[in-house]
Amino acid sequence: MQLSKVTQTSLSEINMVPFVDVVLVLLIIFMITAPILQSGIEVDVPKTRTVKDISQDRLVVTIDKGQRVYLGNDPVNIHQLGARVHAQLRSTQQSVFLRCDEAVPFGIFASVVDTLRQSGINNISIVTEPITGRARTQ
């Protein structure tokens, strides 16, 4: 009889260790994936030997594989790009980062750069990735 009382009292408590383990694993997963999800536009930028770190908070203009132009994460018409950039620029900030997929024709890239320069922005930094030791596979 006494054996059943001991078993009954030990099963009445909830074990929190598995719950804490699952929460910590989810926290680690979210911490790893959050920087990846920062920019929702998928772009394969060209690879170069010299890469400047994006440490400053600047406007980012992106041209994706479909030759669509984005300001930040919002799609924008190329004819309205200059006005939209100036509306979001601060008075001290006169520079823009330009991300362009490597599959985009140079003419599209040049027209976006020309549009930015015509609107008065001459400091355009082109975003690239560093060249890695292994060959790129398609």
Architecture overview:
With 138 residues, the chain is α/β, with parallel strands linked by helices. It folds into two domains: 2-36; 47-130, Nucleotidyltransferase, domain 5, CATH 3.30.420. 34% of the residues lie in helices and 17% in strands. The chain has helices at 2-10, 17-33, 81-88, 106-118; strands at residues 47-48, 59-63, 69-71, 74-75, 95-100, 123-126, 129-130. The strands form two sheets. The protein has a five-stranded mixed sheet with strand order 4-3-2-5-6, covered by helices on one side. A two-stranded parallel sheet has the order 1-7. Helix 4 (106-118) links the parallel strand 5 and strand 6 (123-126). The longest helix has 17 residues, at 17-33. It is elongated and about 75 Å long.
What's the quick description here?
The chain is of the alpha/beta class and 138 residues long. The chain has helices spanning 2-10, 17-33, 81-88, 106-118; strands at 47-48, 59-63, 69-71, 74-75, 95-100, 123-126, 129-130.
Topology (elements, then pairings):
Layout: H1 2-10, H2 17-33, E1 47-48, E2 59-63, E3 69-71, E4 74-75, H3 81-88, E5 95-100, H4 106-118, E6 123-126, E7 129-130
Parallel strand pairs: 1-7, 2-5, 5-6
Antiparallel strand pairs: 2-3, 3-4
